[in-house]
Amino acid sequence: MLDPLDALGPLEAEVLDLAWTLETVTARELFTRQPQPAERAYTTWMTTLDRLFKKGLLLREKEGP
User: pTM score, two decimals?
Assistant: First the structure.
């Protein structure tokens, strides 16, 4: 049986490592943590978090109203 962590791309592995280290993380936090000028768009972080959620590696909570 394949380990889902073996099938991660480099960005997914980076995001997952940060999420585990920080315990909670948002796309906005990931976007603002990167060196400036920004290497990746905000939507790249959102998409990567969504993919990790769909793979069952992250949980998602709604923020705000």
Answer: 0.81
